[in-house]
Amino acid sequence: MSKDYTTMWKELGLNLQAHDGLLSVLTNAYKNIYLSQKNRPAAMDYFDFVISEVHGLRIEELLEAKKANKKIIGTFCIFVPEELILAVNGVCIGLCSGAEVGSDSAETHIPRNTCALIKSFMGFKLSGLCPYVESADLIVGETTCDGKKKAYEAFNEITGKVYVMEVPHKKDDSDRFLWKEEVEKFADKLTELSSEKITVEKLKESIRIVNEKRLALQRLSKLRAADHAPISGLDALLINQISFFDNPVRFTAKLNELCDELDKRVKSGVGVAPKGSPRVMIAGSPMAIPNWKLHAVIEGSGAVVVGEESCVGERNYRTLLDTNFSTVEGGIEAIAERYMTIDCACFTPNTERLDNLEEMMKTLNANGIIHYALLFCTLYMMESYKVQSVFKEKDMPFLRIETDYSLEDMGQLKTRVEAFLEVIREGNSN
User: Fold this and answer.
1) Can the peptide bond before residue 111 be classed as cis, meaning omega within 30 degrees of 0?
2) Measured between alpha carbons, how far is 211 from 215 in angstroms, rounded to an integer?
3) I want to staple 343 with a disulfide (CB 3.0 to 4.6 A). Which of 83, 144, 155, 353 is the partner?
4) Dist. CA 278–CA 419, nearest whole Å
5) Which residues pair with 368 in a beta bridge?
């Protein structure tokens, strides 16, 4: 980090000793997993810097924004419309999870057999390790699964900051009506919290900013279709994770700079893995910082990850938002419609997801798919069987993995991944 942030962390109420320990572990993990990669694009320096300051400079920026009367809105889910938050001059920010932290404390509030993501965000807070939760004026939850829905009740008892949006689980007319009302209520909540009126002009500008960010992420995704892959899956995953934390305008500019470099790499045939290396797509549960385990295993075994069908991936940026409206009500309706295109596993039926998976496999030139689900993430565990049946019919190599944030199963994962990659290599040689 560029300076000593101890005073800031102390004023936020963090557990300084535990927080120092966490940062030490994460710094070492980052060096071993990320900085040891060879032939990385030069423009990754910016994203390395963001990670190095994710609990430092970025938190300082949030606190400066609060002094300027901006509201900090924390979320765990891509159903929370960032456009509305920006339209009230707020800051939309991701919250801490993705590591095995504070499990014992979390289990005093939620069952032991809860998914790792929920346990993690509870554990981060209860252990005094998340400066984002402490900086947030409002934490927006959602009802995408029963575990989260009930965990937010406990999280509100602990933080007193939680607001929950009800996400319907079907996409009939009545469900769309319910969701539109939820978006309207969220807009009212933000207006009340910020004392900022939402106007057509503010809404169109905020949509432009978020659309530009999604376009840059789409550009990165398309560049990964090249063989040689111009960037590792680890680095692409990191960029997708950072998209939830960084200033959106700055992030978009830096990502486009990186994509300019990747464009040149593709044209000159420069890649991060030998041409013809197995190309793997990951589908399923989201991977929050610092959950890099599966990508590290796959790419450490000689393959390259070319795409993530995930909320931390394609699901987040696949669809842009239409700005062809002339009233605030029309803008909110457009926002509601756009977010109902998300193919989250919470929906039934969810055939859109299967169609999108097939399309991604084609456009990214993937040779095989690994379906990843966090343990006790019931929705994605259940959908993995449908995904498997679709790709089995197409004779496409498929591997289903269920794991958590611990490193205890790394050896087992490596053995299974290596066997899976052998199947791909045999298929490629035929």
Assistant:
1) no
2) 6
3) 353
4) 12
5) 280
Burial of 395 (C-beta count, 10 Å sphere; 0-12/13-18/19+): exposed
CB 292 within 8 A of CB 219: no
The two tokens of residue 267 are 């044209």
**Of 301, 171, 217, the residue nearest 47 (C-alpha):** 217
Of 286, 290, 371, whose CA–CA distance to 76 is shortest? 286
Check residue 32 and report its DSSP letter. I
Strands across the sheet containing 304-309: 304-309, 279-284, 368-374, 398-403
Question: What letter represents residue 177's amino acid?
Answer: F
pLDDT tens digit at each of 430 positions of the chain: 779 999 999 999 999 999 999 999 999 999 999 999 999 999 999 999 999 999 999 999 999 999 999 999 999 999 999 999 999 999 999 999 999 999 999 999 999 999 999 999 999 999 999 999 999 999 999 999 999 999 999 999 999 999 999 999 999 999 999 999 999 999 999 999 999 999 999 999 999 999 999 999 999 999 999 999 999 999 999 999 999 999 999 999 999 999 999 999 999 999 999 999 999 999 999 999 999 999 999 999 999 999 999 999 999 999 999 999 999 999 999 999 999 999 999 999 999 999 999 999 999 999 999 999 999 999 999 999 999 999 999 999 999 999 999 999 999 999 999 999 999 999 877 6
Cα distance between residue 148 and residue 183, in whole Å: 19
Number of Cβ atoms within 10 Å of the Cβ of 177: 12
Task: Kindly state the tokens that stand for 220.
Answer: 């990165």
